[in-house]
Write a structure and sequence with these properties.
With 105 residues, the chain is mainly α. The protein is built from three helices and no strands.
């Protein structure tokens, strides 16, 4: 095995670290939102910015067929977009239930 291919093998392996950690971190936030059923303390704008940045990063990296790149950027972006949608839905549901409670009072 040449030194060049050994380095490339190491870089390919290291590339899986963010490919696993970034989507998992986003999935952990999603799981917390689902478990709590509340969106207090979670910024939809921040998660939306992360999602947009990951899509832009994917487009600029140029290695569109590498699974590590796809998982790190587009996988994360998808989960982050779901987080944004859930945050907005939970907040809308809360506003609706607050209005209903106020109308009964």
């Amino acid at each position: 095995m040449s030194q060049q291919s050994a380095i490339q093998g190491l870089l390919d392996a290291v590339g899986w670290v963010p490919a696993v950690i970034f989507p998992m971190a986003s999935l952990m936030q999603l799981g917390t939102l689902l478990r709590r059923g509340r969106a207090e303390g979670v910024s939809a704008v921040t998660w939306g910015m992360f999602s947009l940045a990951n899509v832009c990063l994917y487009l600029t990296i140029g290695e569109w067929d590498r699974p590590q790149v796809i998982a790190t950027t587009l996988g994360s972006a998808l989960v982050q977009a779901i987080v944004v949608g859930l945050v907005l839905r939970l907040r809308a549901d809360k506003r609706g239930s607050d209005r209903t409670r106020d109308a009964r009072a």
